[in-house]
C-alpha cells in the first residue's frame, strides 16, 4: 500500500498555530494613566483626584498626599488643555514691552515673572522693537492665539494717547509706565514724587539752581520727572533752565556732562537715571570739576552699582519689585471679576543720600 504523501489542510475553524503566524509583539499602551487609574491606586474617588489636580483646597492633607504619590508613581500628568476649556482659564499671562535693554524694564519683568509663577501662571513675552499701532495690534493678535488670560503692557511711551490704540475690553490688562488713560488699570512708580525729592534735596542743600539731564522726549516716565523738576523749581521761585535730553545711556550723559561741566554756574545736576548720571560724573572728573565740592549730582533708579560710583551716587530708589508684583495682583483680581478698572496705583520712591551731593562751596 502506497503512503499518502498529501499534507493535511488547515481547518478554517481552527486558530492558526505558531508556525502559521508571526508571534504577537507586546506593545505598550499609547494611553497614559487616567484619573480612574490614579483613583484606584490611591483608594479615593475620581472626583477627589480631580480636586487635587485642579489645586482645590477642600481635600484633607493626608488624602491629598496619597493622591499626589499615586500620580507620581503612575506618571500621571493632568490634561491642562482640557482643564483650561472647562475652567475658561489657561493659566497664562502675556507681557508686551518695547525694550529689554533698560535696567528698569528688566527688573520689572523679573518681578512680573516671579509673581505670576507664584500664582501658578506662566508668562508669554512679546518684545516689540517698533512701538506703533500696527505692532501693538499684532502683539494682541498673537497673544489671543496663545489663549492668555490677561496682559501686562510696559509701554514706556505715549502710545495710549492715540485714539486708534485701544486695549480689548474682554481681555484684562494692566499698563505700566505709560499714560493708560480712562478705562485701563495702571501701576507705576511715583515719578513726580521722586523727581520732586531729588530737586528739593539739592535746593535744601543751598544750591540756587538745579540743571536737569532729561530722558528721551518719547518716554512717559522721563516726561513726568521733567515736569516735576520744573514745577519744584517754580514753587521755589526759580526759573527752570533749558533741559538737555539724553537717551538713558551713559554716553549721552557723558556728552551732556561735558556741556554742563564747562559752565561754572552749574553747581547741581539732577539726572533722570543713574546711567546718565554716571556719564555726567565721568565728564565732570575729566573737566576737573570735583564732586560734590564743585558740582552735586543726583540720579534716579538706585542701580546696585550706584554705591560704587566715584563718589557713591545720591539717587532716587525705585521699587521695581513692587511695581511688577502689584501689576500681577491687579490683573489677577480683574481676571477673577474683583478688580476695579481705572485703578491707578502709585508705588512710592525713596531718596537715598550718598556722597555725590553737598552744600555748594563758598
Description:
The protein has 3 domains: 42 residues, 434 Repressor (Amino-terminal Domain) (Orthogonal Bundle), CATH 1.10.260.40; 127 residues, Rossmann fold, CATH 3.40.50.2300; 128 residues, Response regulator (Rossmann fold), CATH 3.40.50.2300. Helix content is 38%, strand content 14%. The chain is built from 11 helices and 12 strands. The strands form 3 sheets. A 6-stranded parallel β-sheet has the order 2-1-3-4-5-11, sandwiched between helices. A 4-stranded parallel β-sheet has the order 7-6-8-9, sandwiched between helices. Strands 10-12 form a two-stranded antiparallel sheet. The chain is elongated, with a radius of gyration of 32 Å. The N and C termini lie far apart (142 Å).
Amino acid at each position: 500500500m502506497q503512503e499518502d504523501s498529501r499534507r493535511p489542510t488547515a481547518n478554517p475553524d481552527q486558530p492558526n498555530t505558531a508556525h502559521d503566524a508571526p508571534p504577537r509583539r507586546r506593545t505598550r499602551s499609547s494611553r497614559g494613566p487616567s484619573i480612574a487609574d490614579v483613583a484606584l491606586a490611591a483608594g479615593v474617588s475620581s472626583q477627589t483626584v480631580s480636586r487635587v489636580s485642579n489645586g482645590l483646597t477642600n481635600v484633607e492633607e493626608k488624602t491629598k498626599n496619597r493622591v499626589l504619590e499615586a500620580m507620581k508613581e503612575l506618571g500621571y500628568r493632568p490634561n491642562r488643555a482640557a482643564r483650561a476649556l472647562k475652567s475658561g482659564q489657561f493659566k497664562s499671562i502675556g507681557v508686551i514691552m518695547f525694550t529689554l535693554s533698560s535696567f528698569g524694564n528688566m527688573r520689572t519683568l523679573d518681578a512680573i515673572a516671579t509673581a505670576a509663577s507664584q500664582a501658578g501662571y506662566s508668562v508669554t513675552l512679546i518684545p516689540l522693537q517698533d512701538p506703533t499701532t500696527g505692532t501693538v495690534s499684532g502683539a494682541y493678535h498673537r497673544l489671543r492665539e496663545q489663549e492668555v488670560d490677561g496682559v501686562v503692557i510696559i509701554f514706556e511711551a505715549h502710545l495710549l494717547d492715540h485714539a486708534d490704540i485701544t486695549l480689548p475690553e474682554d481681555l484684562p490688562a494692566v499698563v505700566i509706565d505709560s499714560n493708560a488713560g480712562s478705562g485701563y488699570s495702571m501701576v507705576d512708580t511715583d515719578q513726580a514724587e521722586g523727581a520732586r525729592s531729588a530737586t528739593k534735596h539739592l535746593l535744601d542743600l543751598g544750591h540756587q539752581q538745579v540743571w536737569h539731564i532729561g530722558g528721551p522726549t518719547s518716554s512717559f516716565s522721563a516726561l513726568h520727572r521733567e515736569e516735576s523738576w520744573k514745577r519744584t523749581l517754580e514753587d521755589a521761585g526759580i526759573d527752570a533752565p533749558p533741559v538737555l535730553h539724553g537717551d538713558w545711556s551713559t554716553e549721552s550723559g557723558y556728552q551732556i556732562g561735558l556741556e554742563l561741566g564747562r559752565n561754572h554756574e552749574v553747581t547741581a545736576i539732577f539726572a533722570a537715571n543713574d546711567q546718565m548720571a554716571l556719564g555726567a560724573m565721568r565728564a565732570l572728573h575729566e573737566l576737573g570739576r570735583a564732586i560734590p565740592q564743585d558740582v552735586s549730582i543726583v540720579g534716579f533708579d538706585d542701580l546696585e552699582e550706584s554705591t560704587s560710583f566715584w563718589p557713591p551716587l545720591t539717587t532716587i530708589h525705585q521699587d521695581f519689585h513692587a511695581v511688577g508684583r502689584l501689576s500681577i495682583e491687579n490683573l489677577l483680581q480683574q481676571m477673577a471679576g474683583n478688580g476695579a478698572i481705572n485703578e491707578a496705583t502709585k508705588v512710592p520712591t525713596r531718596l537715598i543720600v550718598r556722597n555725590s551731593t553737598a552744600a555748594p562751596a563758598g
